[in-house]
Amino acid sequence: MLAVRFHPKHLGALYKPVATAVVKVPNLSSLTFRSISTTPITPSPPPDIPKHNKPDRPGSSDASGSSLSSSSNLVKANDGSVPVVKKIRKRKVDMMPSQRKVDGEDHLYDFNPPNPFFGELDSTLTSHRRVTAKDIAAREEPPTQVKMLVRDYIDDHLYNPQYGYFSSPQLEIFTTATKDGYDFTSFQSSFDFENTVSHRYAEYVQLEREKQKARVSMGEYEDEIGKGGQQLWHTPTELFKPWYGRAIASCLVQDYKLNHFPYHDMIIYEMGAGNGTLMTNILDYIEEVHPDVYERTSYRIIEISKKLADKQKVVARENGHLSKVNIINKSIFDWNERVLEPNYFVAMEVLDNFAHDLIRYDLETGLPVQALVVTDYTGGFHMIYEPVTDPYILQYLHLRALLPQPLCQSPSLPDMYTRFPLLRSIRAGLPFAPNLTKPEYVPTKAMMLMGILRDYFPHHRMLFSDFHKLPDAVEGFNAPVVQTRYNGEMIPVSTIMVRQGFFDIFFPTNFRLFRAMYALIQSLPSLTEPPAHLRFTPLNNPTELSFISSNPTAIPPTFFASNPPVYPGLPIPSPESLVRPVRNGSKIEIYTHEEFLTMFAEDPSRTRVKDGTNVMFKWFENASFIF
């Protein structure tokens, strides 16, 4: 089930497969419902399986209403007999979603699994308490017997203050052996530079092994992988310091002098500043090259990690910039202060760790469903589906529908299926045909950030950089890479359902879609607080959008049409507004990594090796900038 790059004996240290259900319904021909789930276990020595079977919080209930599950979650009928399944087509193998009422709740059963050899699952999974990442932020250990949106599961996995991936004491950001970085002109070739970087990685691995031996000798024990093994990654900011940061500073100063100097101060917000290297390089450049601008510069860091925030303060003091730096230790999603001055909002390699939601489409009806991750009493994970009711997912789907083709179209639902419903029905009737499309990961947290920037930073200019393409991703559209570091090597796996805090989860960014969505959001009324009961209406008039409490899954028939409908209160953006936000009136450009650095690098010769290759320009070819 996992595509991993190490000996099979290590598989048990990551996770093991658990049973999924196969239900035989009398008087129907071979109707099967199945799904897949995984249970992570602690590497040797493994933890004891809990002896109790009590809910995490007895008496808690799901305030969200209906809950529809995948095939792994089968609930017996009230009289204890074999479950009755409604809306079933009689055919050899029926994989269409089927629904039935149990205790007032509709339950949806899912799709063809990747592996047909499963046993039976716990039938109580859908009754587990529903939580968000904020609800469990104070927990010291991952919760059991709960369910949450994929967005909340990823947030909890990465950012939980106690056990999240970015809270691990073993987490390190790669940096060069010397404070001033590499002397690139001394390398014979790009291959020579790669070898030097590899040796630097080996030094980190060796140092970590020595630390672990010391801990073991003192009677301490830590797992070999995950938090017990050093988690290390590199960024262009660290690899190519100070020249990468100085190129970004050059871009910002050029725009500042063109648009704001001398009438406004230069205010820079950096979200997720890591080791503080970019801050140092930017302020060093401004102080050395533009001292008149430096006098009017304020550098403000928004950092969710307490550990990194403390480190950034030390770095600012050591480099003489403490008077210019203000470190705000909070999540950008908790921001509640309006900044009315013109400012620059910078984020390097941050978008990739923004949580996404997972949606799929019913191939018979074309309706979307949202995924939830359920944790059973053993800590095992299961994925279930329900109609889209989350206001942020609804909001994202509505806004995307307003964009021009092909951006308004879901990549998981081919255009021919939206135009010709008969094709969907024919496909759904085929033996072994899946009832849902492939997973699609939608950037709901990135959409929230756009609303925060518009509402609280109305005069901002953004400069973001991140990956537009990633290898070794899990299955699905816009799917993430899930990986951990084991014995000095990065090991990608094939599922997002892995033990909390042990794995990095990061996504590619579709910058064309990001630009169009960003520009649209800048032109609309406030989206920071979405309505709690936003619903698609099933009315015959497909242009009407209203707030209703019934039929939450009904979508107008033209929702996925080539010409998107006009919704009252949500104006169709003009082509000009798609590249020119209404609020700040500035053009949004997308650059490749090399294009941006070619334009703004202070001195390209400083990162050119002896064979003529500019390693700063040529590395990270799967990254882009948006400004």
Explained architecture:
With 627 residues, the chain is of the alpha/beta class. It has a domain of 113 residues: Rossmann fold. Helix content is 24%, strand content 15%. The protein has 14 helices and 22 strands. The strands form five sheets. Strands 1, 2, 5, 6, 13, 14, 15 and 16 form an eight-stranded mixed sheet that branches. Strands 11-10-9-12-17-22-21 form a seven-stranded mixed sheet, with helices on both faces. It has a three-stranded antiparallel sheet with strand order 19-18-20, with no helix packed on it. Helix 4 crosses helix 5. The longest helix is centred in the first third of the chain and has 28 residues. The two termini are 40 Å apart. 41% of the residues are buried. The N terminus is likely disordered. Its EC number is 2.1.1.320. It is found in: Mitochondrion.
Question: Which structural traits does this protein have?
Answer:
627 residues, alpha/beta, Rossmann fold, eight-stranded mixed sheet, seven-stranded mixed sheet, 14 helices, 22 strands, 15% strand, globular, disordered N terminus
- Helix percentage: 10-25%
Distance between the termini: 40 Å
Number of strands: 22
Protein structure class: alpha/beta
Report strand %.
Answer: 15-25%
Please identify, by name, the CATH architecture of the domain at 236-348: 3-Layer(aba) Sandwich
- CATH topology of the domain at 236-348: the name is Rossmann fold
What would you report as the Rg, rounded to the nearest angstrom?
26 Å
CATH class of the domain at 236-348: Alpha Beta
- Main sheet, how many strands, which sense, barrel? 8 strands, mixed
- Contiguous low-pLDDT stretches (5 residues minimum) are 1-119, 215-229, 527-586
Supply the number of helical segments.
14
Sum up the overall morphology in one term: globular
CATH superfamily of the domain at 236-348: Vaccinia Virus protein VP39
